[in-house]
Amino acid sequence: MRAQPFRSWTAINPVFRLVTGPEAPRLDLTGAHRPGACPRRPSRSSFATRFNEPGRSARSNPFPKLIVSTAMLRLLTVMTALLVASLVASPPAATAPDLAASPRQAPTRELVVLEMPGCIYCGIFRRDVLPAYKASLRAGELPIRFIDINDRAAGDIGLAAPVDIIPTFVILENNEELGRIPGYVGPETFFHAVNHILSRR
Questions:
Q1: Which among 166, 44, 68, 71 has a CA at the least distance from the CA of 113?
Q2: pTM here?
Q3: What is the DSSP letter of 69?
């Protein structure tokens, strides 16, 4: 005799049918409730449907949707452009001067001859001393300049004391008097006096 497939307990046991009645629930031994069977995982469609129900709030949704509008993207683009423009237009920060790269400027020195019209010894100096001085190496580092004592330019010189004798030879450093030679003293004495004044600095 060929075995019939198992359908339900009510089909096999009439007593069970009477106790439970014809509308008793049937045992499902082929589905997820079979002993030793794991429960079925919900499908993605049912999962999405469950979390997108109208009654659920956005806070309970573990996967909120990030919505970036076009206006927000435009705002971010404009802000980035303004930031780049401000960085390009801003001048570089001022730095302290490099003392090693820019050495200290050497002091300016000069020899000023204060004279006046009609001075006999002023002419003798121009004739006997001036040519030799211009030919010397000292004239390169200590240039000579003639100023009339009555001229306004004489008042711009940083003299340490008034001038009483003409001619007077004044050695200046940055327009400040270092020393002077009052009166005409002859070529040899003149050169020695200039070297002595410069050696004191």
A1: 166
A2: 0.49
A3: -
